[in-house]
Amino acid sequence: MVHLDNDWDEILAGEFEQDYYKRIRYWLKREYAEQTIYPPMQDIFNALRYTPYHSVKAVILGQDPYHGPGQAHGLCFSVQPGVQPPPSLKNIFKELHDDLGIQPPADGTLTRWAQRGVLLLNTTLTVRRGQANSHRNIGWTTFTDHVIAKLNEREQPIVFLLWGGNARSKKSLIDAPQHLVLECPHPSPLSASSGFFGCRHFSRCNAFLEAHGLAPIDWDLGHG
What we know:
Order of helices and strands: HHEHEHHEEHEHEH
Number of strands: 6
Helix content: 25-40%
Radius of gyration: 17 Å
Structural class: alpha/beta
Distance between the termini: 33 Å
Strand order of the largest sheet: 3-2-5-6
Shape: globular
């Protein structure tokens, strides 16, 4: 049984007893025994652990975890402390600087964003070493679709930042009028110049939150 130690436990009560999740668990037991899988097993649900349901102000949707050694720790686009930011994350920091004038942090750990109300959720929560999207079809998308649907039910407004085709495919799950959906190409070097750069999602997110009487997100990872 998964314990998240916050209100997600109640929100997702019963989810971990569903047949589809039991199949994920069975598959992962074998995968972790026979392959190198990221993130470490204890970090799979870190996005939900770091950002309780009631405190979510914004959601950044990623695809699946980084598949290089020592990178992934359960938060999309984030790497473990001391690890250099991968190219996509460098582009996120570039847009953050261009949008809000915030200097890039010393490393690529986004835990402070998660603690400030940014749910950093991958649509697939595990991956084989060196094989992007290798766990795409084991059932994770059913689980994360249910997480997104629960967020859509919340009365307090949330900003959903959908970066790239995989994330944008979830737009149909977010139909409650109180929320804001921002979408653009993925921050990968392959697509960042096609509309991620210049999207100004960080400032637009905060403007929406403030317009609804909510405190803006402190996007500066250099303090706090």
